[in-house]
Amino acid sequence: MASVFLYHVVGDLTVGKPEMVEFTDNETVEAAIRAIGESTDYGIAVWKRRSVHKGLIETAEMRHQRFVGILNPLDIVAFLARDDCLNDQEKALRTPVSEVIVPDNTLLKEVDPGTRLIDALEIMKHGVRRLLVPKSIGWRGMSKRFSILYNGKWLKNIDSNPNITIPSINRSSSSTPTIIRDKYCCLSREDVIRFLIGCLGALAPLPLSSISSLGAINPDYCSIEASAPAIEAALKIPREPSAFAVVDPTPDGQHKIIGEISASKLWKCDYLAAAWALANLSAGRFVTGVEDNLSSRCLPDLVAAGGGDGANSANGGRLIRQRTFSSRSIGFFNHNPSSQSFGVNRSMYRGRSVPLTCKTTSSLAAVMAQMLSHRATHVWVTEAENEEVLVGLVGYADILAAVTRPPAPPIPEAQ
Q: What's the pTM?
């Protein structure tokens, strides 16, 4: 077990974190889109409105019951891709978030700033995505030497561990943090990974080990064939991570990855354009884009909501202007590729639609750096010999499990 996990507490990671502003479930989808765009994370925590009772002090249990879940861009795009939402987009944008979000209050847990980092990692390994931490004043950042002693109290599991030697620390009343119970900040798994990548030396030799040797590759991923309708991705959105690999099956039963439909890829996109594309295009064309100059036979036009043509729109149907989808309209590309087929010359497509991949032989440090530099929740893993054949993915939970897994016992030498 790396000492960095024992000698740091959650409070060390919250220095400089902004105060959490609650987003309530009676807000509209349009407000949620703005909030996600302004957020430092690809998803926002959604809460029920706090009951106003004079003199009532909200407990941790009451606060946890008010937490609804985490709303991400893929949830919103999938909702806007429904037929009724496409027919009346203005009404869809005014829909309360409570009708869109999938409730799951197990995704957040409140912890004390003095919680050991190792205990926080154990919590996050089992599905918790955000830690709610009370803000404190007087907190001076990194623990001066060891953080196994915090606020004059022994931390969890310290007394029962004979292998930990407690240093002598002079604790004055002036250095004791004051907890502000009405103010909180949220600590995400990305924050933890960012902290760990600054402590790679303390994690040696794990950072330079391959993700394959560490058992960090998760073979259980969700995929959708490139020829299938993209709307299939909206039928059952995976929660961890919220991502589908768009694949091209090979004759030998393997999958070649050509793109992905995920919450992190759709962050800060044009939600209405993405929703229309999700409802009308194949998965392959959704991720690689259909350019503006394609003929109408390649891309169906939108017609009146009643199913008739423009002449019949006065008879109760709502006329929607014809439009062609472009990958640039949802922010997938930085330039204009000339290919008209998602299966041809894929090397020409470069931009946000290109999936973030690594090899089975990639080091853990390299994968962590990829995730942080691209603000991604996961990295798709391909074979070492073939960079297109998909074998699995590495997500936040897989990294946390790898860095906290006890080292394998040495193999005894044969006598």
A: 0.77
Gyration radius (Cα) of the chain, Å: 25
Query: How do residues 316-350 score in pLDDT, each as one tens digit?
Result: 443 343 444 454 545 444 333 333 333 333 333 23
Residue 272 and residue 334: Cα distance in Å, rounded?
19
User: Two tokens at 33?
Assistant: 């889109």
